Amino acid sequence: MFMTFALITLLGALGMLLQKNIIVAGLFMVATFFGVAGLFLLLANPVAAALQIIVYSGAIMVLVLFVIMMLNSHEEEKAETSRPVQRWVSVALVLALAFGAVKLVLSSAGVKALDLRGAAMPQAMTLQKVGTTLFADHLLGFEVAGLLLLAAMIGAVALTKRNL
Amino acid sequence: MDKLASLLHMTPAIFWMVAKVVIVFSAVMLLASVWTWVERRGSAMIQDRIGPNRAKLFNRWPILGLSQLLADGIKFFFKEDLVPTDANKKLFWLAPFLAFVPALIGFAVIPFGKDFVSGGITYHLSVLDPGNGMGLLYPLAIGGVAVYGVLVAAWSSNNKWSILGGMRASAAMVSYEIGMSLAVLTIFMTTGGYDPAEVISAQGGALWHVLPNWNIFHQPLGFIVFFTCMFAETNRLPFDFAEGESEIVAGFNTEYGSMKFSLLALAEYSHLMTASALVATLYFGGWQVPFMPDPPVMLSILSFLVKMLFFAWVFVWIRWTVPRFRYDQLMRLGWKAMLPMSMFNLVFHAWRMSQGH
């Protein structure tokens, strides 16, 4: 199961990068989101899986595709000149990031605990638990995120509306 | 149940799982196709016409034109399968499935009857057993994804009308999803759980000894918002902006014909069935029978079916009585009426709960 979802995620991401047509690339990205949702399910977190689909596949990508359709530019623009330096720098950066991420995960406390205690069946996440965690342990972060989103919303309204 | 399972060399659990999947999905598909007939006969009734009544089974029994279904199906199968030259062929093929699959699997989480015990094992009458952790978030997620069928069909046809239809559908879907989600959240709050089984069992009993304890009587505003949003989600009149026959030809399915069109139409009706089942579950007590604390299993299934089919009929009824909205009216209704109403509903019930009700 893990391999299936991981493959869906990775192939979706690869397809998105290689696809010249923006709409098809967007659909590949939706496939990636579904793969990630499947991975969340395997991690005994159905709530995160459902929210992943509701928020990313159901709302954000729909809006992105909407904007692309509205702008009516369905093909990626060709680069004026090829920039080999940028390409190599980006490849190097991606490699460094991937290496760093793998190293971070492998040296994390969770993996060490897994080595010591073996994989115990985790308790499945429920919406109630998400709520109590958000409002008990991460109240400040939650409120700050809410404030940030409110500011972004007001900013978007102020930008698009000519005469307020 | 056990005997049947052992005859097929299966454990009762697996046998039950397979049986549930087959029963639920074939029932939804069957009801969806029957509803194309109900729509045509119903519209004829409302407009004082006769409607389809000529197709006869074995050239003998007309059965109120019900055999029109078979005739339509056979006709769609044998029609030429056209793909426009400049269409994106792969996506054009994919789109009907993207529309049909979410419409069908959205039903999976809804309990259609009371649990029963046989041979010491409890059997749940829903494809996904209660306590799966997704609960009612699942139909919301699937409903959000359903727009891709319309969007992909619209874009891959490479037709101006289609793209207009697809854009309208995606905008409407996203706008109405917020109001709908807030209405459902209020139910989660007052129930204290988000599993459909919990939502239904919380609606048992009576309210003031005269009414069944259904959520509609607690949250009429939430029901209005949710039901309205369901019309937008299923893309049905008065909100059928993806099609809008008088404005943009046939919208997202302009280029579709033969079985692919049939699949898109079936997707719409399956979606309608899922939406009606959701309304029945959330606001009308699901399989609960009024004033009957512990109904027999068969009666509970019947009760659910009656409620679901009633709302499916209301969808048809409203389609042929209410004139369609204009696009800006739809947006105004969504953002300036449905969202504040839903918000008010949420805050009001939060306040009531804080007062200890």
TrEMBL record, chain A:
<protein>
    <recommendedName>
        <fullName>NADH-quinone oxidoreductase subunit J</fullName>
        <ecNumber>7.1.1.-</ecNumber>
    </recommendedName>
</protein>
<feature type="transmembrane region" description="Helical">
    <location>
        <begin position="51"/>
        <end position="71"/>
    </location>
</feature>
<comment type="function">
    <text>NDH-1 shuttles electrons from NADH, via FMN and iron-sulfur (Fe-S) centers, to quinones in the respiratory chain. Couples the redox reaction to proton translocation (for every two electrons transferred, four hydrogen ions are translocated across the cytoplasmic membrane), and thus conserves the redox energy in a proton gradient.</text>
</comment>
<keyword id="KW-0874">Quinone</keyword>
<dbReference type="Pfam" id="PF00499">
    <property type="entry name" value="Oxidored_q3"/>
</dbReference>
<feature type="transmembrane region" description="Helical">
    <location>
        <begin position="135"/>
        <end position="159"/>
    </location>
</feature>
<feature type="transmembrane region" description="Helical">
    <location>
        <begin position="91"/>
        <end position="114"/>
    </location>
</feature>
<dbReference type="InterPro" id="IPR001457">
    <property type="entry name" value="NADH_UbQ/plastoQ_OxRdtase_su6"/>
</dbReference>
<keyword id="KW-0520">NAD</keyword>
<keyword id="KW-0472">Membrane</keyword>
<keyword id="KW-0812">Transmembrane</keyword>
<comment type="similarity">
    <text>Belongs to the complex I subunit 6 family.</text>
</comment>
<keyword id="KW-1133">Transmembrane helix</keyword>
<keyword id="KW-1003">Cell membrane</keyword>
<feature type="transmembrane region" description="Helical">
    <location>
        <begin position="25"/>
        <end position="44"/>
    </location>
</feature>
<dbReference type="InterPro" id="IPR042106">
    <property type="entry name" value="Nuo/plastoQ_OxRdtase_6_NuoJ"/>
</dbReference>
UniProtKB/TrEMBL annotation, chain B:
<feature type="transmembrane region" description="Helical">
    <location>
        <begin position="91"/>
        <end position="113"/>
    </location>
</feature>
<dbReference type="InterPro" id="IPR018086">
    <property type="entry name" value="NADH_UbQ_OxRdtase_su1_CS"/>
</dbReference>
<feature type="transmembrane region" description="Helical">
    <location>
        <begin position="263"/>
        <end position="285"/>
    </location>
</feature>
<keyword id="KW-0812">Transmembrane</keyword>
<keyword id="KW-0874">Quinone</keyword>
<protein>
    <recommendedName>
        <fullName>NADH-quinone oxidoreductase subunit H</fullName>
        <ecNumber>7.1.1.-</ecNumber>
    </recommendedName>
</protein>
<keyword id="KW-1278">Translocase</keyword>
<feature type="transmembrane region" description="Helical">
    <location>
        <begin position="214"/>
        <end position="232"/>
    </location>
</feature>
<comment type="subunit">
    <text>NDH-1 is composed of 14 different subunits. Subunits NuoA, H, J, K, L, M, N constitute the membrane sector of the complex.</text>
</comment>
<dbReference type="InterPro" id="IPR001694">
    <property type="entry name" value="NADH_UbQ_OxRdtase_su1/FPO"/>
</dbReference>
<keyword id="KW-0472">Membrane</keyword>
<dbReference type="Pfam" id="PF00146">
    <property type="entry name" value="NADHdh"/>
</dbReference>
<feature type="transmembrane region" description="Helical">
    <location>
        <begin position="297"/>
        <end position="318"/>
    </location>
</feature>
<comment type="function">
    <text>NDH-1 shuttles electrons from NADH, via FMN and iron-sulfur (Fe-S) centers, to quinones in the respiratory chain. The immediate electron acceptor for the enzyme in this species is believed to be ubiquinone. Couples the redox reaction to proton translocation (for every two electrons transferred, four hydrogen ions are translocated across the cytoplasmic membrane), and thus conserves the redox energy in a proton gradient. This subunit may bind ubiquinone.</text>
</comment>
<keyword id="KW-1003">Cell membrane</keyword>
<feature type="transmembrane region" description="Helical">
    <location>
        <begin position="133"/>
        <end position="155"/>
    </location>
</feature>
<keyword id="KW-0520">NAD</keyword>
<keyword id="KW-1133">Transmembrane helix</keyword>
<feature type="transmembrane region" description="Helical">
    <location>
        <begin position="330"/>
        <end position="351"/>
    </location>
</feature>
<feature type="transmembrane region" description="Helical">
    <location>
        <begin position="176"/>
        <end position="194"/>
    </location>
</feature>
<feature type="transmembrane region" description="Helical">
    <location>
        <begin position="13"/>
        <end position="38"/>
    </location>
</feature>
<comment type="similarity">
    <text>Belongs to the complex I subunit 1 family.</text>
</comment>
